[in-house]
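[step 3/7] fold_predict: job queued, chain A
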Amino acid sequence: MKKHNFNAGPSILPRIAIENTAKAILDLNGTGLSVLEISHRSKDFEAIINEAVALFKELLNIPEGYHVLFLGGGASLQFCMVPYNLLNKKAAYLETGVWAKKALKEAKLFGEVVTVASSADKNFSYIPKGFTIPADVDYFHITTNNTIYGTEIREDLDSPVPLVADMSSDILSRPVDVSKYALIYGGAQKNLGPAGVTFVIVREDILGKVDRPIPTMLDYRTHVKENSLFNTPPVLPIYTVMETLRWIKSLGGVAEIEKMNKEKAQLLYNAIDNSKMFVGTAEKDSRSLMNICFVMKPEYADKEEAFLEFAKKRGMVGIKGHRSVGGFRASTYNALPLESVQALVECMHDFEKENA
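[step 4/7] structure written:
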């Protein structure tokens, strides 16, 4: 039976990226060595990381003056590295979910932090609007997509101060005007590659402005200077990132990916909105294209487990909502094919016919 992978992360990857990674694990480009055992100082790996950086820059049209880094520690380490490198006196954060809250908490260790706006009052079911970004802060931090609550900022904000964005779960899902950001970061394990590598896109001129000394490994300038090779990087995940970027390019780039993502999300949101049994949890003008969250209507609340079991038998994987909110979540990342969304919609219709 075909599996339809809606996992929120680690999540579905392009099949060709998985297959080519598997080949490279056995033999990298006819070298007789596995990608798992080559030196990160070798010309073979240098070619891999250089191609991954070049493709990233090409696909996102990254301007001059920016560096693409591949680091360890996940986005969670970036919650600390960002303020370590950028927060001199004061920073501003937009609070739109669990990960935004965690980033904000870490920043408070380094200086004054103001919460510009929050959607906590309605369980993070919307993206705040009409807020004013203070002009007296070192940077303004946003989390563009909120995997647990299914909300997303799908525009590039104009900010009077350096704009920092956690794009862990929507990087490369739409064209981005990178010039509006000072720093973009994220874990790869949603749209980019397997768990174990973190990407950072950083504008060089924002670095070196804080008064505090920064430990070598936590200083972005260390990794800029050494092309992400100051210490041994996560070699295998970077290889898969390169393969995923090649796949995106082969489809026509990020603009084409966005069209596909809109089609998938529209199909599923229409099914939810026209359902007798299911209802979406995010406000319509804040809905994510990446994580589509929904629940049973109150009168069918007792059917939740039955639907999960029904869906499992139809090959649906990973649609149970995050443990903190319950319900259902379908993660429709770049690599998820339209046929998987069609299969989920059909599954919902069939369950409704039998139970509504």
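[step 5/7] annotate
The first strand starts at residue 4 and ends at 5.
DSSP finds nine helices and 14 strands in the chain.
exit 0
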